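Workshop exercise sheet. Pairs work together: one partner reads the sequence aloud, the other fills in the structure field after running the prediction. Swap roles for the next sheet.
Pair: D.N. / O.F.
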Amino acid sequence: MRERLRDALEIAGLAVEALGVLAVLAAAAFALGAYIAAIVTRRPGMDPYPIFRRRLGRGILVGLELMIAGDIIRTVVVTPSLPALAALAIVVLLRILLAWTLFLETEGRWPWQREALSPPEARTERRDPPR
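Structure field:
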């Protein structure tokens, strides 16, 4: 019985990690499609690139959160050894730092700040010269 539970949790952890990968892929496809559509129907003075970056960054954040959850399930429940937990701690720490960096890049603020430092569009927007 215990072995069945362990196998089921291993599969659940892998499934959650796979969902994370699918979330990143779906967000990339959606962001790229919206970016291409915005280029085709481009309005003067509008730069679609900051919007693309924000959408892609948010998708990556969702994917990272799911991958962290999958790692935790697989490591803590399935293989709770000290070396596995140490490896998990390092992986989770790196993923959290990456997530915070992506959050800052997409939202213009750290996750614990209420107000944006400056809008991402203001920091990354490139405008075409007037014609």
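Discussion prompt: The chain has a mean pLDDT of 82. What would you look at next?
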